[in-house]
Amino acid sequence: AGVISTTVEGMLYGFSIFMFGMTMWILWSRRSTPNVNWTMVVASVIFAVLSTMHMIADVVRLEQGLIEHRDTPGGPDAWFADISHFTFVFKILIYLVTAVLGDAIVIYRCYMVWQSWWFALFPGLMITGVAATGIGGLYRIIESSPQDPSSYDSVQTWITAFYATTLSTNFFCTCLLAYRIWSISSNVKKYNAAPAVRGGVPVLMIVIDSGLMYAAVHLITLVCWVLQNSMSYIFVDLAMPIICISFYMVIVRIGM
């Protein structure tokens, strides 16, 4: 599973870096305003750095498990099964930070589209739940032990809560964004402003596509985690570059 997830993650990571380059080019060279959107620039760089750190952590973890610990008692399987190991905790920490940042960006977009903090207030409360469950899950992972199988039950509970809250936050914010864009396009249509309508519908679909991509990978991971299927660890690795790609995709598709 580790080899498969790292290989596929590597391919998606390469594509995410390509999308990062396109995003920076659009934000710097093809912007429609004289001012650079520094919020998106900083967020893009942070996403790229986090995904790179996660990729490196996975490669290091793979090397340690398959080479350094191949002759230890239990072999690589026993080593990979120990989720309290530093390399696993580190990559999960990176993933949690990335997921929270992804939700924060969607909330920021809600504010920008609605131009009101009221529409960012409730999602802001929701993201505190995402962060809290993520921290709780990370703590339980650190405290878990292969010698105490019951410790994994607590991990299961916290991680399930994390996925439920991040899915809810993203779904709620995506619906707010989609409704606002649709309502603006509908109002413009009443005045027969066809060019604006043509511009509004593609943006609506881009936002929905991005939200669906984010939701799909997390929903699959949640289902696998609830079923205690080992595929959940694969989808956790795949979620990292997909979160970044879904963020870059909005900027690139609108900018192009």
Walk me through the structure.
The protein is globular, with a radius of gyration of 20 Å. The protein is about 85% helix and about 0% strand. With about 260 residues, the chain is an all-alpha fold. The model is unreliable at about 195-200 (pLDDT under 50). It has a single domain (about 1-255), classed as Rhopdopsin 7-helix transmembrane proteins (Up-down Bundle), CATH 1.20.1070. It is built from 8 helices and no strands.
List the helices and strands and how they pair.
Blueprint: H1 2-29, H2 38-68, H3 75-81, H4 86-114, H5 118-143, H6 151-190, H7 194-226, H8 231-255
Please summarize what this structure is:
The chain has 256 residues and is mostly helical. The chain contains 8 helices and no strands.
- What is the makeup of the main sheet? none
What would you call the structural class? mainly alpha
As a percent range, the share of helical residues equals over 70%
Count of all domains: 1
Mean pLDDT: 84
End-to-end separation? 37 Å
Number of DSSP strand runs: 0
**How much β-strand is present in the residues?**
under 5%
> What is the H-and-E element order?
HHHHHHHH
CATH class: Mainly Alpha
Radius of gyration: 20 Å
Number of separate helices: 8
- Low-confidence parts lasting 5 or more residues at pLDDT below 50? 194-198
At CATH's second level, what is the architecture? Up-down Bundle
Might you state the CATH topology name?
Rhopdopsin 7-helix transmembrane proteins
Transmembrane segments: 12-29, 36-57, 92-111, 118-142, 162-182, 203-228, 234-254
Keywords: Membrane, Transmembrane, Transmembrane helix
